[in-house]
Amino acid sequence: MAVDAARSEEGFTSAGATRVMVAACQAAGLDDRDAELIRLGENALFRLASAPVIVRVARGEEWLPKARTEVAVSEWLAEEGFPAARIVADLEQPLLVEGHPVTFWHLIVEGDRKATYGELGGVLRELHSLTLPEGLELPSFEPFDKQELRMERAVIPPDDKVFLRKRWRELQDKYAELRFETPKGPVHGDAHVQNLMVDDRGQVILIDFEAFCYDHPEWDLMVTAVEHHSLGWQSDEQYADFVAAYGRDLYDWPGYETLRGLQEFGMTTWLMQNVQEDEETAAEYRRRIAGLRNDDAPRDWQPW
Description:
By secondary structure, this protein is an alpha+beta fold. It has helices at 2-10, 14-28, 64-80, 117-128, 147-153, 158-176, 218-229, 236-246, 256-272, 279-293; strands at 36-40, 43-47, 53-58, 95-97, 100-106, 185-187, 196-198, 204-206, 213-215. Strands 1-2-3-5-4 form a 5-stranded antiparallel sheet, sandwiched between helices.
């Protein structure tokens, strides 16, 4: 089974994910004709033409527990009335197809604007104030859980793998020394502004629960703090709106530099999974790995 799972992830290309999507739709009684691949990242996302449904295909069987968490979190947030993505409730899921967990989600019809950083701060503040119900068991945040597989299977130069493994061990040592200042609670785990959507009624909706966990809220603040302070992806005004809405700037916390290292490492290893897809992705990976090799160099990374 482990060998089959490894093979399934090694073959996780747009073509392979499409084959899995087709089989999953057939098993669920959905029409896959003219389905559109809208994103290939940690998962492959397909928009069905026959129904307002998004099909989410994960990389390998190791991701089955995360898919189960996604389904459970969606059900809980729906009960809370929290504005979040909804699973298709009348389908049994997740399905496991050719070693790939597959889930089905209601399509969110986007409006004419994107979510703001102030809205992200507000959504996270509200999310972190929720109390988990009895029976919903969530994992702790695991900054290293995917890295071993990523480094093992990525199609990158051997010296990059040697460097990444060394950096991985260094980050583990720094992580062991972290001391958090806040109590644990529900955490999104990948809280960037692209994981908010604004629907055609103007409602801001939280999406993508794969990394959802029960841990310290600093993990959710880390993403936008690093994007601003290290990568310069937001203006000062945008970041100020985020901080004002949430009520905290992680940059002032002594543990920020460790979280910055973890976030940049994760952003690089996430992207390197798809270097074989096209030269644009490969070029961005080269920019990011060059940045990791020189902590003091300016980051010219592009959003992906």
